[in-house]
Structure formats: structure tokens, C-alpha cells
Specification:
The chain has 287 residues and is mainly beta. Helices cover 0% and strands 36% of the residues. The chain has two domains: 141 residues, no CATH class; 95 residues, no CATH class. The strands form three sheets. Strands 2-3-9-10-11-12-13 form a seven-stranded mixed β-sheet, with no helix packed on it. Strands 14, 15, 16, 17, 18, 19 and 20 form a seven-stranded mixed β-sheet that branches. Strand 12 and strand 13 form a beta hairpin. 43% of the residues are buried.
Length: 287
């Protein structure tokens, strides 16, 4: 699927997307919920810039947060996994799924058989007052600790608070909403597939199959619409001369893909180049 002024057969180009997130293990006793590097920045009303970090540390370096890699949309923050003079420090871990489900792990003394997290990685510090957003999870750093919540959609406001000595769920009471649908499966395209709210989508391997910095509306409804930046190539020019233009992306045909709620079809176009929705050229997202 290419973004062109008139429909044409799919063309494909390489898009390398590397998300550096440290390897981690989520193990140990847990209880189900009841109730990188910056890519671009947004200025909030307070004047702070929202960062987009794959992983980060609290300013006191006692809380490590990450996730969203290795084909999962789960975000996490944990304590007690870094260097410590105590060979068996207490640990805590909170994970947040895309629908707002929170799972908490606590161990009084970490051991080979009882541990919440491993592989504490080096990461940039999220300073007091700063925020970072990744995979629709917004995390805020304050002197009291780190707060991470779902930024939009059915699970909005659900999340957790964590610092060096405590961890708890926050947000609306009651069970979380049904799992948030994803865009097909990870093998259906180059970038963004198999995830909810993908900020970048690439169906193929040429620049005209890319849409970046997507902002979605109504994700979870029968039809989700996003706007972002696409690309087109002037006639007779090489792909290196591709030009950016506003793009529209539509994910629809909500169903099941390998047992997971997912959008099964995708269409995207450049309105300024005469493009419009056309189901005949829909891209199948589930293989």
C-alpha cells in the first residue's frame, strides 16, 4: 500500500525502526488488578516537553521503567533491581497493559526463586516535573515518585504510582475494560503491526508506504481514524526526493486475529494528493 495521488499496486521499501529497551524478566508473586530515546516532543500547558522514552530512571535512580518492546504493549516500573549493598533487597514491580489492567509484584527479600525483576539497565533520567509518553502510557516524574497512566481510550486514567518504598494502583475502581484491539499481527507489515495505537505504520519497504507521528481517534471503535505524516514522490524523481504531506490512516473491520481483538484491514492516503478511502485497496493486517 503506497500513499499516492491515485490508487496503484502496493510498493515496498525498508524502514528500520530500532527501539532500545533493556531485556527484562517479569517473574515472582503477583496479584491481578481489580479496580530509547526521544523521537519527538510536545509542549504541555505547563511549558514542559513530553518526552518519548523507551525506558527511564527516576531522579533518585531507585525506580526503573521500560517495556513496550519484544512484541508486547505492557509497560512496567520496578524497584530493587539495581546495584545495592544488600544482596537480597526488597523488590516491587507494577505492570500496565494497554486496557488499564495493573499487575503488582512485591517480594520482601529477592532471591533466585522469588524476584520481581532482573537486568536493571542504564537509562536516561526523567527529571522532576517531566513527562514521557509511549504506547499510550503517560508517565510523570514528581518528588513523591513516578505515576504512569493510560493516556486515552477506554482505560484512560488507570495505572499505578511507585517510588522506592511503595507501589499502588490508581484510577477508576472496578475491573478494567476489555482488551484494547491491536493492528493485525506483527508479521503483516514492517512497523506498527500487532500493537494498539501505533504511532508509526509502514506496510512495506518504500517511503511511500510510511505514515509517521500518527494521532488516533476512536481507537477501539469499529473504525479508528488517525492523522499523521505520509510521503509522496514527484514523477520521474528517485525515492530520496520524497516529500512529506498530511496523511489519513483508517483501521477497520474489527475482529479476531490469532485469538486477539484486532483491526483486520487498513487504508491510508494523502488528501492533498487526491487520495481518499477506497476499500478495494485495503491492506490486510492479519496473516
Amino acid at each position: 500500500m503506497g500513499l499516492t495521488s491515485t490508487p496503484e499496486p502496493a510498493r515496498r521499501v525498508a524502514l528500520a525502526l530500532v527501539l532500545a529497551i533493556g531485556a527484562f524478566a517479569l517473574v515472582g508473586s503477583s496479584s491481578p488488578a481489580t479496580g530509547a530515546t526521544a523521537r519527538h516532543q510536545v509542549v504541555t500547558a505547563s511549558g514542559h516537553r513530553i518526552r518519548h522514552l523507551g525506558e527511564f530512571l527516576s531522579p533518585d535512580r531507585k525506580v526503573w521503567c521500560g517495556g513496550g518492546g519484544f512484541g508486547t504493549d505492557v509497560r512496567f516500573c520496578g524497584t530493587g533491581g539495581g546495584a545495592s549493598p544488600n544482596p537480597n533487597p526488597p523488590q516491587s514491580l507494577a505492570t500496565l497493559a494497554s486496557n488499564g489492567k495493573v499487575t503488582i509484584c512485591r517480594v520482601a527479600a529477592a532471591s533466585f526463586r522469588h524476584v520481581c525483576l532482573q537486568n536493571w539497565d542504564k537509562a536516561p533520567v526523567l527529571n522532576y516535573g517531566q513527562q514521557t509518553e509511549s504506547n499510550n502510557v503517560l508517565c510523570t516524574s514528581a518528588t513523591s515518585g513516578i505515576t504512569c497512566v493510560i493516556a486515552s481510550g477506554p482505560g484512560k486514567g488507570r495505572g499505578f504510582f511507585i517510588n522506592a518504598t511503595s507501589v499502588r494502583r490508581i484510577g477508576p475502581p472496578g475491573p478494567p475494560p476489555p482488551p484494547v484491539p491491536v493492528l493485525g499481527d506483527a508479521d503483516a507489515g514492517q512497523v506498527g503491526f500487532g500493537k494498539p495505537y501505533p504511532s508509526d505504520v509502514a506496510t512495506g519497504v518504500i517511503i511511500t508506504t510510511n505514515v509517521r507521528h500518527i494521532h488516533w481517534r476512536n481507537w477501539g471503535a469499529k473504525r479508528a481514524t488517525g492523522t499523521g505524516t505520509g510521503y509522496w514522490v514527484p514523477p520521474g524523481k528517485p525515492f530520496s526526493d520524497a516529500r512529506a504531506a498530511p496523511a489519513v490512516v483508517v483501521a477497520y473491520d474489527l475482529g479476531s486475529c490469532h485469538g486477539q481483538r484486532a483491526y483486520l484491514k487498513l487504508d491510508m492516503w494523502l488528501p492533498s494528493r487526491g487520495g481518499r478511502f477506497n476499500s478495494r485497496y485495503a491492506y490486510p493486517t492479519c496473516l
